[in-house]
Amino acid sequence: MAKKTPLSKAQRQDNAPKVAKAEPNSREKAIHSKGTRYVLNLAAILCAVVVVELVLSFSLPASFFHDSQIPPGARLFLWSYNIVTLTGFIFTIGTALRFFFHLSHQSFPGRFIIRWSILFALVFLAGLILLFYVASWATFWQIGKFLDHHALSFWAGEPLQVFHWTDVDVVLTVLVATFAIGLLLVQGIPRWIERWPAWIAQRFLQACAAVVAVCFFWASIGELYGSRKEQRYLAAGIFYATGRDESLSPFAHVLADLRRQLWKPAVAQELMPSETIQAIRRPLVPMTQYLASVDRHKVKPWNVIILIVESLRADQLRVYGSRRDVMPAVDAVARESRVFLNTHSQASHTNYAVMAPLSSHYPLRSATQYIYPKNPSYPRVLIYDILKALGYQTGIFSSSNENWAGMINYLQTGSLDKVFHASSFNGPIDAMPGDTGFAEWVKATAHAGSVDDRVTIGEAIKWIDEVKNKPFFMYVNLQDSHLPYRVPADFPHRFGPKKLDFTIRFGYLPNDEIDAVKNTYADSLAYVDSQMARLFECLRQNALWDRSIVVLTGDHGQAFNEHGFAAHGGPIFDEVMRVPLIIRAPGLRPGLDEHPAQHVDVAPSVLDLLGLPAHPSFQGTDLFSPHVDRDRSIYMVVQTPSAYQYGIVRSNWKLIYDEWKENYLLYNLSVDPGEKIDLAAARPDILKDLARRLHAWRTLQTGYYADASRQLREYPPTLQD
Confidence class of residue 437 from pLDDT cuts 50, 70 and 90? Predict the structure, then answer.
């Protein structure tokens, strides 16, 4: 029997039965086509974003999930609306980027450099969108507001100053999160999807389409629920619309912002400015003509010192009800001064607020965030312009950087002998805790930073020694009470610990840390008080105290979660708008004055004490006039990324109009000083009257500053009370 020769491995493989390679069926071909894979990627991105936003919404206290005023059913509508909005944005952005990428390959097939340049531009654009998204959530965590065009214009005006006050850890977190998410979207999700079997991919797409369709249905119901005309003043409809536009997600907020810009609602007819509210218009007057009306023999050549303290709440002083000695030097001055107990700032943010006491002009000049231009076209006569014409020496000493929002452009009228502020100081500037050198780097740009009040007061004292033989005007702005409320290491802490175990952030304050932050704030005010004490002592030692008018106020107050927000620059509730106003002058009878007062009243009141008539450009009232009306109107404004609001206080009633939410808040301050009970629905008569005045004021202000021809012939007009 013949012996069998064993087959080699190659021969065995050749003799093995041939199995035909399975061809992919039409369904698998469709699933793995480029177009379908792209849709799969976008759908997966959508699901990932929805999960992330769900976690963030549950985690952040400012989210609509934590708003007990929104009914459970309305929350379902809101979340459905969010998913539909996310779907629209993600698929629109993704499709647009893919289209331009494809177009670049078709239009420039052989031009390598052009194609790669376009690709780089598309990647850069996608990165900016992603950075905006992450930064918007970070901003919402910090101040309870998502980014929109108002915030971007605010940042664009002075980006270095904004970022100077931003926590380094927040910036790094935003950048790292943006990079990580971008890497996940570009590499992680596509590679993961490539490993999916066809049946999973198909079921996934079907499930996504079904969920989006259901959400579209519920979102449509929600829109009917929140936008019906009869819901305009009903709480449920208002809270739904507010949650949808303000606290849902970055893309929902962007959509609301676009809707507001494209379809601005008309003001209701019953709230339009009334012709019965008369405007007072005064023609321009040369300084020589104004001075010709002055009896020089009756003018008192007293020095004038205006002190503005950053974020100074009235309730921090004994004379305003404080139970502890936070600012003993100021309280001592108050005992020999006229103290105005009912004073409001004109704005909740510094760049608007600090100009009003000096100019007696309301800060509202535009329908949007306003930055002071160089050589503005409108007339402005600041108090030191008048005093300079009378032979005074004039100076500004500010711990702040007056370049912020162009403030220096407004202050530089040609009448100042001395200007000291942060950008003119060659020493170290203040920085946020943990600063890595960014603050020192931007110091060279002269657009960021602040200096220790000890330095500012020192410069002011040196200048007094130089000019004390002549009457002088001095404006001093002190900043160490600005968040995060720094106190030098060599200064005793009387209220809080020397070091906190957490970081104080702008706009965000955990409720369990309120007392600790308030105590730190009080310590910072105590330090500012100690520096003002040096200035007061200098005046006394140089026999200038009895020849000087001293005005002390805060640019605005400070919030500690009384209405759900912290710091300032936000809604115009009284914890931010009520400020002290203390005026001490030789021979002025000290005491408490309950007449309504506001910052635009400072300049005409000081001129009255000097024996000078009010300048025709002033919009404020002389507080020492016997004709001050207790029912006069007080106006206020905020235009920041945190809020766009306008307010009026009249006869102990306060009306706030929120431009973003398109609603009104009405409070009776005589019985509800904490502004807890909104009476807008209960008192339509009061609301209508105050709204007419408020809209008349807004129209008058913005109309004047938009009309260059009027600015050539008249001063900013005022409303007749």
Answer: very low
CA dist 401 and 104 (Å) reads 47
Query: d(Cα 528, Cα 522) in Å, to the nearest integer?
Result: 10
pLDDT attached to residue 428: 61
For residues 104 and 108, give the distance between their C-alpha atoms in angstroms, rounded to a whole number.
6
- Contact, 508 vs 264, CB < 8 A? no
The amino acid present at 184, given as its one-letter code, is L
Report how far residue 583's alpha carbon sits from residue 282's, in angstroms, rounded to the nearest whole number.
Answer: 28
The most confident of the ranges 135-149, 368-382, 544-558 is 544-558
Contact between 637 and 697 under an 8 Å Cβ cutoff? The reply is no
The mean predicted confidence, pLDDT, of the chain is 85
CA dist., res. 592 & res. 149, Å (int) = 44
CB 430 within 8 A of CB 409: no
Q: How far apart are CA 142 and CA 506, in angstroms?
A: 7
Alpha-carbon 107 to chain mean position: 45
Burial class of residue 49, CB neighbours in 10 A (0-12, 13-18, 19+) = buried
Write down the pLDDT at residue 691: 94
Measuring CA to CA, how many Å separate 612 from each of 245, 289, 292, 605?
A: 51, 14, 11, 9
At which residue do the structure tokens 């601005």 appear? 264
Q: Strand, coil or helix: what is 15? A: helix
231 pLDDT more than 50 = no
**Cβ neighbours of 352 (radius 10 Å):** 28
Q: In angstroms, rounded to a whole number, what is the distance separating the alpha carbons of residues 147 and 137? A: 8
Question: Hey, what domains does the chain have and what are their CATH numbers?
Answer: 27-260 (no CATH), 287-631 (3.40.720.10)
Q: CA-CA distances (angstroms) from residue 667 to 70, 409, 566, 596?
A: 22, 37, 21, 16
* Residue 35 pLDDT: 66
* Mean pLDDT along residues 502-506: 78
Euclidean distance between CA atoms 357 and 346, whole angstroms: 9
pLDDT attached to residue 574: 97
Residue 68's CB is within 10 A of a number of other CB atoms, namely: 6
pLDDT for the residue 222: 80
| Sheet strands (E) in 322-453 | 338-344, 393-398, 418-420
656 φ, ψ (degrees, to nearest 5): -115, 125
- Kindly provide the b/e burial profile for residues 317-331, where b requires at least 16 CB atoms within 10 angstroms of the residue's own CB: bbbbebeeebbebbb
Assign 445 a pLDDT band (cuts: 50, 70, 90): very low
Which residues pair with residue 650 across a beta bridge?
A: 653
Cα distances from 281 to residues 153, 248, 386, 704, 719, in angstroms, run 32, 45, 21, 11, 9
